[in-house]
Design goal:
Belongs to the universal ribosomal protein uS11 family. By secondary structure, this protein is an alpha/beta fold. The chain has helices spanning 2-18, 67-79, 96-106; strands spanning 21-22, 25-32, 37-43, 48-53, 81-82, 85-91, 110-116. A hairpin with a 4-residue loop joins β2 (25-32) and β3 (37-43). It is globular.
Length: 133
């Protein structure tokens, strides 16, 4: 009895994700790390509308860090949302940041602004000592 209930819940959530959501204005967050790229789309209040990552799109290992994976991730996240205008916030120094931004601009959404939120230390922690090989 409990297993049947769990299957119903999982099917229902899967179906809900595929529905296109309409928002007039949103925020696209791109987190480009050295090993993965995560694209999250929120409304203006900050509630998540759609999300996708390179691993979620089927990439594994070093291919997750590629620009192509970032582009596919951005297209997948945008495909479930219909919006006219968006702000783009990019964080991280990975290879996928430019590719994801290119894919977002090609999608037809009008970008109000693009901001880089990459955390930079103001000479915070002491770096590890030099390697002696």
């Amino acid at each position: 009895m409990a297993k049947a209930r769990l299957k119903l819940v999982s099917r229902r959530t899967r179906r809900l994700r595929k529905i296109k959501r309409r928002i007039p204005k949103g925020v696209i967050h791109v987190q480009a790390g050295f090993h993965n790229t995560i694209v999250t789309i929120t409304d203006v209040r900050g509630q998540v509308v759609s999300s996708s990552s390179a691993g979620n799109c089927g990439f594994r290992g070093t291919r997750k860090a590629s620009p192509f994976a970032a582009e596919t991730t951005a297209v997948t996240a945008i495909s479930t949302v219909v919006m006219q205008r968006a702000e783009v916030l990019i964080k991280g120094a990975g290879l996928g940041r430019d590719a994801a931004l290119r894919a977002i601009s090609k999608s037809g959404i009008r970008l109000t602004f693009v901001r880089d939120l990459t955390p930079l230390p103001h000479n915070g922690c002491r770096p590890p000592k030099k390697r002696r090989v």
